[in-house]
Amino acid sequence: MNITKPFLLALFLLNTAIGFAQQVAIKTATGEGIPYATITFLKQDSIVGGMYANEKGLAMIAPDMDIDVLLISHLGFGTQKVTWEHSNIDVVLEELLNDLPEVVITQRKEEAVWMGHEFVRKRSAFCSAQRGMEIVTFVQNNKQLSNLEMTAFKFKVRRRSEDKTAVLKINFYTNESNTPGKRINAYQDITVALAKGERGDVVLDLKTYHMIFPEEGVFVGIEWMGFADDEGTLLQNNTYNDSSIAYSACSTEQLTFMRSAFGTDKWSRMTFWDGRKDTFVPAFSIEVK
């Protein structure tokens, strides 16, 4: 077989890149990989970036990353602070005990009701985000009923230039003085994979999570995790995620916030408006029953 010099050079560069990249394996106490764990990069106690592990709990960190500490966390597990020594490491996260009260769901004869912000084609907009960004908005309990179960979550997406699967995480928070409070799905990692070119309504079945819709309403949000290849493996890159979610015009002020998964826990208030009287709110709606 005739092997050209350019081919040998490319093979050498590939092996060199693989040889020097360091692997972080995030596992349970029994050795199982923890999918989509959050890894925050620190340099002299300052946050300088971050990434997600893939669906097997593995992450590859480039050799030129100027960091000294990894902060690793995942829903339902403790947080580990690890000194980064530029070598392959295994990190074991301790599973937290589920101290949430037992969910009591009242069975009702009424039909399911959608609450929140439906997409309206007239006066609408679409918004994307960088990997690690999370946007949440408030959904009011219009019925003011207790023990309602959240049975589905709906949003609308427009895929434009992407040719890969996009992975999103869905989070629910309590309402604490009109700001996002404690995570309701504290022990449940809810992820959604959007196929290449997928667009239109995305409806997620929530029945298996048995989450109560609070009387004081709930904050629900989408966290952009990045792209996956054809085999479903989360890619480690910083490409802008063009999975645009729909916003609808609203005549009243809305409670919408954003934050970075690789930053502090502080939420920042978001306001979108078109220079007229209306503001725009993420078109998120929740089915309750």
Report on the structure:
- The chain is mainly beta and 289 residues long.
- It has two domains: 12-92, Carboxypeptidase-like, regulatory domain (Immunoglobulin-like, Sandwich), CATH 2.60.40.1120; 113-288, Jelly Rolls (Sandwich).
- It contains one helix and 23 strands.
- The strands form four sheets. Strands 8, 9, 11, 15, 16, 18, 21, 22 and 23 form a nine-stranded antiparallel sheet that branches. Strands 10, 12, 13, 14, 17, 19 and 20 form a seven-stranded antiparallel sheet that branches.
- The protein starts with a helix and ends with a strand.
- Residues 1-19 have low confidence and may be disordered.
What labels describe this entry?
289 residues, mainly beta, Immunoglobulin-like, Jelly Rolls, 2 domains, 9-stranded antiparallel beta sheet, 7-stranded antiparallel beta sheet, 23 strands, 6% helix, disordered N terminus
